[in-house]
């Protein structure tokens, strides 16, 4: 089974994290979390990577509080990790308090001022805190200036979600998702816009797709139960077979993590 295959893999934290990313992308967050936990038992320089993967697994399972805990552990090891700060800010923006979200965004921007998704989060937190006049410069220059980028569209939609036109926000976010189907933040905000428009079922489906590996989970949920189980077993067998070719596994997992950002 999945746990046995992970246990017998080489005892190297990096390889376990690599396998975990592939499993997560394929829609197996529980198996991915098991691989990550096996990895963090090693006192290795890659410890922050393991906690980041665990946080993503928790998000995939709809557990934001547990994800926050793991992102906090990443930041204990690497206090300027822009990915962990960005994801922390996104969760805090959704659940509060707003001041904590703002602080996380400011730290993330200091760590990576060129990340367009961090800039998009800053646009939204400024709009929510009544500082819309400060968003103009963010939208006109830097990573959000391109109107045809997924993050740029999401940032403009953020203004509409905060006291503007939710219908326009929905259209902008629909285009953002079309441009980048793996943009989890855009999908999350799109789910919010759909919910505001009363499209509850589609909102729930988009919320699932917004999670790490969520598009794979969503495809399985559309199948009849027996077909879904057969598909899960076939995909899990394919993914675990990658452990037989470890030289290929690490770059595949690195690419998948980048696509999940």
What is the strand and helix layout of this fold?
Layout: H1 2-7, H2 13-25, H3 29-40, H4 47-60, H5 64-77, H6 82-95, H7 98-111, H8 116-128, H9 135-140, H10 150-161, H11 166-179, H12 184-196, H13 200-209, H14 214-221, H15 225-241, H16 246-260
Helix pairs in contact: 2-3, 2-4, 2-16, 3-4, 4-5, 5-6, 6-7, 6-8, 7-8, 8-10, 10-11, 10-12, 11-12, 12-13, 13-14
Notes on the protein architecture:
The protein is built from 16 helices and no strands. With 261 residues, the chain is an all-alpha fold. The two termini are 29 Å apart.
Descriptors:
261 residues, globular, single chain
Describe, in short, the structure shown:
With 261 residues, this protein is mainly α. The protein has 16 helices and no strands. Helix content is 75%, strand content 0%.
Radius of gyration: 19 Å
Query: Alpha-carbon distance between the termini?
Result: 29 Å
- What is the residue-mean pLDDT, rounded to a whole number? 85
The amount of beta strand, in percent, is under 5%
The DSSP helix count reads 16
What structural class results from the helix and strand content?
mainly alpha
């Amino acid at each position: 089974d999945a746990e046995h295959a992970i246990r017998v893999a080489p005892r190297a934290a990096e390889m376990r994290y690599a396998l975990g990313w592939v499993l997560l992308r394929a829609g197996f967050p529980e198996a991915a979390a098991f691989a990550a936990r096996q990895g963090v038992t090693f006192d290795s320089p890659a410890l922050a990577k393991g906690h980041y993967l665990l946080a993503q697994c928790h998000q995939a399972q709809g557990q934001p509080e547990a994800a926050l805990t793991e992102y906090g552990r990443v930041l204990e090891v690497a206090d300027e990790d822009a990915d962990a700060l960005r994801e922390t800010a996104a969760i805090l923006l959704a659940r509060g308090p707003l001041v904590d979200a703002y602080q996380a965004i400011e730290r993330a921007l200091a760590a990576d001022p060129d990340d367009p998704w961090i800039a998009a989060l800053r646009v939204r937190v400024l709009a929510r805190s009544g500082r819309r006049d400060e968003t103009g410069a963010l939208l006109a220059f830097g990573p959000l200036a391109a109107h045809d980028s997924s993050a740029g569209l999401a940032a403009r939609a953020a203004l509409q979600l905060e006291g503007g036109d939710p219908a326009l926000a929905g259209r902008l976010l629909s285009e953002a998702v079309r441009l980048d189907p793996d943009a989890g933040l855009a999908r999350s905000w799109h789910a919010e816009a759909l919910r505001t428009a009363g499209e509850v079922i589609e909102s729930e489906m988009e919320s699932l797709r917004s999670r790490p590996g969520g598009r794979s989970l969503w495809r399985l949920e559309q199948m009849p139960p027996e077909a879904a189980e057969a598909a899960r077993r076939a995909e899990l067998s394919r993914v675990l077979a990658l452990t037989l070719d470890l030289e290929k596994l690490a770059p595949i997992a690195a690419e998948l993590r980048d696509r999940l950002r």
